[in-house]
Specification:
Blueprint (H helix, E strand, L loop, with lengths): L25 H78 L1 H19 L8
Helix pairs in contact: 1-2
């Protein structure tokens, strides 16, 4: 009673040819589709990483530019402050000399003449001829 049913010539109750199943058309197409999806995911991930890297580099460069601008502004302000201090000191010295000359006019003229003769003598040393 338990006899195998007639399944056609060459069948012994196994599926396919001699126990191995022939490749089904849906399996290779499924593998290719899976590989395509994985490649798209990989490309998408790489694009996202590149975009994040670009954003990070832009952020860092923007921060660097801001630090350089702040350093430049600070240096420029320091130089202006130092130049102002030098100008104020020179103005104070000039005003002090002016007050000194007004207070002692004769002594100032004598000192100026003495300094002029001394400078003229130093500059004329190479021009003197021997007699």
């Amino acid at each position: 009673m338990n006899q195998p049913s007639n399944r056609g010539p060459g069948t012994t109750g196994q599926t396919g040819n001699g126990g191995s199943s022939p490749p089904q058309p849906s399996q290779p197409a499924g593998v290719v589709d899976t590989l395509k999806d994985k490649a798209k995911d990989l490309a998408s991930g790489a694009a996202n990483l590149a975009g994040e890297a670009k954003d990070k580099v832009q952020e860092w460069s923007g921060a660097a530019v801001n630090r350089v601008e702040q350093a430049w502004d600070s240096t420029r302000a320091g130089v202006r402050k130092a130049a102002g201090a030098v100008a104020d000191t020179a103005e104070d010295a000039w005003d002090g000399f002016g007050r000194l000359i007004r207070r002692y006019p004769v002594a100032s003229v004598l000192i100026a003449l003495g300094a002029g003769f001394l400078i003229g003598d130093l500059l004329g040393m190479g021009r003197r001829s021997r007699y």
